[in-house]
C-alpha cells in the first residue's frame, strides 16, 4: 500500500537515500519529513550548490544535508519574500531570482529585493488570480532572466519582463508564451525554444525577420542635469555598432507632466546636429535595417540655460 499521512501545506518530504519513490519513514531507511515554521505554504523547491531552496508564499528556507539522525537542517533565509508560483523562479550561476508579490527578489546567500524601474508597469496590470502560471526563463548567453506573466485581463501569459543581471537593467513587452527551454536538445543552433498559448513551437534569438513588427528601444524620462534648468541640446553623439542601422527620436518636455514635443526621427551620424530645448527627454531607437544592430551609450551635448 502506498505511503500516506496527514497532508500539510508546510511539510517537506524526502525519500530514503538512493531512491526516488520510497517516502515512508521506517527504522530501516532514511525517509522523513519536516514541517516548516512558516505562516505561508510551500510553493516549490530548487537545488543549488550545497543546499536546496524552499520557496513559500511568504518566505524562503534553506535545506542543507548534515547527515546523522536528522539528515537535514532547515533555516529561514528571508522573510516577506514570497514566490507567486511554482515556476516563477530561475537559477543562474549561484543566484536564485524570483517574482514575488509586487517586487522581484534574488538570493545569493542573502535575500535582497532587485531594484526594478518597471515595477508599476508589471504589477499595476497583473492577473493575480493567474499568478501561478508565471514562469521564469534563464538565458545565460545574454545574462538575462525573463518572467512571462499574465496581464490584468489575460488568463494566460501574454507579457514578459526581462532583467539583465550583467548590466542591471530591465526591458518588457508583449509575447504570448507558456513554456520554454534555453536550447532544444540536439539543435544545430543552440537557441531558446518556447511554446505559445496556441501550442505552436517557436525558435527564438535567430534570424532578423520580425513578422512585420519594427523592433525598438525606448527609455523612460531622463532629466537633463538636475532637472531644474532648461538645457539646449545641440548635438547627438551615437554609439552604434554600425551607423545607419537605427533611427533616433527624442521626446522633450519642460516638466514631468508637461506636454512632450517630438524631435526627429534622425538618421544619426557621428556627431549629429540637433536643436531642441527641454528639462527632460525620452529616447526612442527604431530599427531601419533588418540586421543584428546594437546600440551602446548615447551622449547628448547641450548648454545649460536659465531656470525658466
Description:
The protein has 308 residues and is mainly beta. It contains one helix and 25 strands. The strands form seven sheets. Strands 18, 19, 21, 22 and 24 form a five-stranded antiparallel sheet that branches. The protein has a four-stranded antiparallel sheet with strand order 3-4-5-6, with no helix packed on it. The chain is elongated.
In short:
The chain is mainly β. It has 1 helix and 25 strands. The strands form 7 sheets. Strands 18, 19, 21, 22 and 24 form a 5-stranded antiparallel beta sheet that branches.
Q: What is the element layout, followed by pairings?
A:
Layout: E1 11-14, E2 32-35, E3 42-48, E4 51-56, E5 59-67, E6 71-79, E7 89-92, E8 95-99, E9 104-107, E10 111-113, H1 119-123, E11 135-139, E12 144-149, E13 159-164, E14 169-174, E15 179-181, E16 193-195, E17 201-203, E18 216-218, E19 222-223, E20 231-237, E21 246-253, E22 261-266, E23 272-278, E24 280-287, E25 299-304
Antiparallel strand pairs: 1-2, 3-4, 4-5, 5-6, 7-8, 8-9, 9-10, 11-12, 12-13, 13-14, 15-16, 16-17, 18-24, 19-24, 20-23, 20-25, 21-22, 21-24
Amino acid at each position: 500500500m502506498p505511503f500516506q499521512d496527514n497532508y500539510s501545506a508546510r511539510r517537506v518530504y524526502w525519500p530514503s537515500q538512493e531512491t526516488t519513490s520510497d517516502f515512508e519513514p521506517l527504522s530501516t531507511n532514511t525517509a522523513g519529513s519536516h514541517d516548516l515554521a512558516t505562516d505561508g505554504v510551500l510553493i516549490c523547491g530548487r537545488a543549488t550548490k550545497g543546499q536546496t531552496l524552499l520557496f513559500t508564499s511568504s518566505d524562503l528556507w534553506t535545506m542543507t544535508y548534515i547527515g546523522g539522525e536528522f539528515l537535514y537542517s532547515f533555516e529561514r533565509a528571508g522573510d516577506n519574500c514570497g514566490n507567486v508560483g511554482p515556476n516563477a523562479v530561475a537559477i543562474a550561476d549561484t543566484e536564485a531570482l524570483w517574482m514575488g508579490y509586487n517586487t522581484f527578489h534574488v538570493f545569493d546567500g542573502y535575500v535582497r529585493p532587485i531594484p526594478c524601474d518597471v515595477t508599476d508597469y508589471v504589477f499595476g496590470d497583473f492577473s493575480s488570480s493567474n499568478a501561478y502560471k508565471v514562469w521564469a526563463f534563464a538565458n545565460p548567453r545574454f545574462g538575462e532572466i525573463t518572467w512571462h506573466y499574465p496581464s490584468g485581463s489575460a488568463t494566460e501569459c501574454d507579457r514578459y519582463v526581462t532583467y539583465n543581471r550583467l548590466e542591471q537593467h530591465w526591458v518588457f513587452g508583449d509575447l504570448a508564451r507558456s513554456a520554454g527551454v534555453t536550447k532544444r536538445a540536439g539543435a544545430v543552433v543552440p537557441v531558446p525554444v518556447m511554446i505559445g498559448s496556441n501550442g505552436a513551437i517557436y525558435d527564438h534569438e535567430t534570424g532578423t525577420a520580425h513578422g512585420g513588427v519594427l523592433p525598438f528601444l525606448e527609455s523612460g524620462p531622463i532629466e537633463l542635469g538636475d532637472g531644474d534648468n532648461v538645457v539646449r541640446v545641440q548635438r547627438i553623439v551615437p554609439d552604434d555598432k554600425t551607423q545607419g542601422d537605427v533611427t533616433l527620436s527624442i521626446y522633450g518636455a519642460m516638466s514631468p507632466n508637461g506636454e512632450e514635443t517630438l524631435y526627429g526621427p534622425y538618421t544619426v551620424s557621428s556627431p549629429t546636429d540637433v536643436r531642441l530645448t527641454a528639462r527632460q527627454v525620452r529616447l526612442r531607437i527604431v530599427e531601419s535595417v533588418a540586421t543584428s544592430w546594437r546600440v551602446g551609450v548615447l551622449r547628448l551635448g547641450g548648454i545649460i540655460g536659465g531656470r525658466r
